[in-house]
Amino acid sequence: MAAVKVLQIVGYKNSGKTTLLLTLLKQAKHEGKTVSTIKHHGHGGVLDMPNNKTDSVRQFSAGANCSVAYGGGIIQLHQRKQNATLNELITLASSENPELVLIEGFKEGAYEKIVLLNCKEDWITLQKLENVRLVISSEAVELDKIPVILQNDYKQLHSWFINWMDGDKHESI
């Protein structure tokens, strides 16, 4: 498997993580990159399952540890694992050798991160995270050694992301 670049997008609830991930995904695809994504379901409880009348969901509900369905070029996987690590999820997401894996959440992960701030006070706890490469904030913040982009500065974000995708210095597996 070729090295894959990994970038986490972290922040508190309603900080814009999903919106940013989708923006970066579209930008990476526009640049011709292959991309996988991982989302941490931080709302508690189990994920909602697709229609329980499909054969694969019926098989999973009946106790299969893993149920895989394939059709029309789409693979759908449901798998039970009490405690999956971020590295295990990255390995799973990397099965088709993407160039990038974009991750929403998993704050404590060790990969390069974009941190989203709802307000300056969020930085008090989020500054403890490792491998922070960029901070995006709704208000002006000055930080030592970490670039800050204002929330709606898409031109600067685009430039930063292009440099990150194509740069030599990056976290990869």
Automatic annotation (TrEMBL):
One Pfam match: MobB
SUPFAM superfamilies attached to this UniProt entry: P-loop containing nucleoside triphosphate hydrolases
InterPro entries: MGD_biosynthesis_adapter (IPR052539), MobB_dom (IPR004435), P-loop_NTPase (IPR027417)
Organism: Planococcus versutus
Domain of life: Bacteria
Domain Molybdopterin-guanine dinucleotide biosynthesis protein B (MobB): 6-136
Name this polypeptide is given: Molybdopterin-guanine dinucleotide biosynthesis protein B
Gene Ontology BP annotations: Mo-molybdopterin cofactor biosynthetic process
Gene Ontology molecular function, alphabetical: GTP binding
